Amino acid sequence: MIEIDKLHIGYHSTILEVNRLDLKNGQLYILIGRNGSGKSTFLKSLGGEIPYLSGSARIEKKEISTISQSEIPFLLSTVRSSFNHIDYMSVYNYVAMGRSPYTNAFGKLREEDKSAIEKAITSVGIIHLKDRFTSELSDGERQLASIAKAIAQGTNVILLDEPTAYLDYLNRMNILNVLKNIAQDQNKCIVMSSHDIDIAIESNCEFLVVTKNQKIELFKELSKEGILELAFTS
Amino acid sequence: MLTERKHTLILIILLVSLPVFALLHLNSGQIDLGIGTMIDSMFSFNNENMNEVIAREIRIPRMLTALLVGGSLSIGGLLMQTLFRNPLAGPYVLGINSGSSLFVAFTIMTGVTFFQSDLGMIINALIGAFLFGLLILFFAGMVRNQISLLLVGIMLGSFTSAFISILETMSHAEELKVYMLWSLGSLQKVEFHQLGIISLIVFLGLIGALLISKQLNLLVLGEREAKSLGLNIKRIRYLIIGITALLTGVITAFCGPIAFVGLAVPNMVRILFKTQHHIVLITASFLLGAIFVMSVDAILQLLESWMVIPINAITSIIGAPIVVIIVFRRLR
């Protein structure tokens, strides 16, 4: 759950303003806006990577600016558009990294960690790949592994910065469906930035639109024309 | 799990091979001493028995030095490779050894030092290694490309050798000779009484590396991902540089710069184990590194009756092609 009130974000001066926003568990939100409109900055601010300028943003009732670096991984997980090349790391071991905030000083996996990992890999539909090296996966499979890692982390909030950027049409659809199902089945609050307006409209998600006057507003239902009007035409 | 059992098996094989290679090394000298003499020289030393003197003063220190050099440089290399996410990194190629060389050269050739002792040498080499480690860390923040970082390391090396050559022109013949001999790299200068302090520091470095293994595993994902999983990046960077400086500094102080061990061994270990679990990688790098340097040095010892080859020549002959192979595999 994310609650935002009169939030101003940016590096030095305000580039985005969010008046009031309640993002609930059980829902997938698609963040849409022009290139350079501040979508990534917004997600980074929520993730505690960039301090916001003023206002309030809370995750699970905690003000983000007061959350310590070591507490962040218990509250939210993040997925990026690119995937670092790693030699010799199996999908299972990669997803297991999501459990590292919970494991002891040597990273020993307990039974509950193992079942969380299996469950996460199963829920994104790549259990058949669990012993493969991540370096051998296709881009779509890698992104699913990244999402599984975020799920294994066990947080209610998951933030994804353009996870479908490098994927083809079918993989984009698949990722969106997987995320939507996870939001509903596992009662998570998922925010994902994307340029895939068409796919998003088809899948009946809610939209966070960065409007032309640099504000983020929530829309439960939108048509393509509506989005273009709000965010893209000048 | 199957892979875990395989890892344990290979580790046990390495662990069992270690004393075997140690014995081979001890027996590769020109005089046949026998195990009995070795044991006597350790536990009931008689300084009138020539064989026991050779065992205690020459053979055993050289074997243990080879073991410690191989083990600690390999862990140093592994830590650098993980920190910079670069299989080509190592204390030698990144110029961390150069830091030690510069400080040691300064000490030897100008006579200016904090302590006139083994400890002084160690501290100089450690400070040099640590400072140059920080310098490389600083440059690594600016260059994203893996090969560029190596170029920076090589430049750091050239820069240092320029300074050292200026020092050389200003120093006396006697000091110059001491430095030149040191800079060639050798496992034979460590004396029996120095082994204690070297082993202690290497042991501390090994334990330190094992204690941060979970953080190292996270670092493999890349710094941003590691950070979002709660890793304190700044602290782990300094810890890694500190432990690497400890491990390579102490070796460089006593044996001079030894090339390519730290680069080659961890890569062999990764190919052998196909894992990123650092507990396994650290342990295996130590064992395989020790075995590697002991076998190289054993061969040198066998050849010694008709030619004396510096250890660096052999480690470079083996290490340099490994760098080239990795570069080709990466850029293909």
Please provide a written account of the structure.
- The complex is a heterodimer of chains A (234) and B (332).
- Chain A has 234 residues and is of the alpha/beta class.
- Chain A has a 6-stranded mixed beta sheet, sandwiched between helices. Chain A has a 4-stranded antiparallel beta sheet with strand order 2-1-4-5, with helices on one face.
- In chain A, helix 4 packs across helix 5 and helix 5 packs parallel to helix 6.
- The longest helix of chain A is centred in the C-terminal third of the chain and has 17 residues.
- Chain A is globular and about 50 Å long.
- Chain B has a single domain, classed as ABC transporter involved in vitamin B12 uptake, BtuC.
- In chain B, 49% of the residues are buried.
- Chain B has 332 residues and is mostly helical.
- Chain B has 14 helices and no strands.
- In chain B, helix 3 runs parallel beside helix 8, helix 3 runs antiparallel to helix 11 and helix 5 crosses helix 11.
- Classes of the chains: A alpha/beta (234), B mainly alpha (332).
- Chains A and B meet through loops of A and helix 9 and helix 10 of B.
Number of strands of chain A: 10
Q: Assembly type of the shown chains?
A: heterodimer
Mean pLDDT of chain A: 92
Number of helices of chain A: 8
- Overall spatial form of chain B: globular
Please give the share of residues in helix of chain B: over 70%
Strand residue percentage of chain A: 15-25%
Q: SSE order of chain A in H/E notation?
A: EEEHEEHEHHHEHEHEEH
Secondary structural class of chain B? mainly alpha
Instruction: Categorize the overall geometry of chain A.
Output: globular
Measured distance between first and last alpha carbons of chain A: 33 Å
Helix content of chain A: 25-40%
CATH fold topology of chain B: ABC transporter involved in vitamin B12 uptake, BtuC
Low-confidence stretches of chain A: none
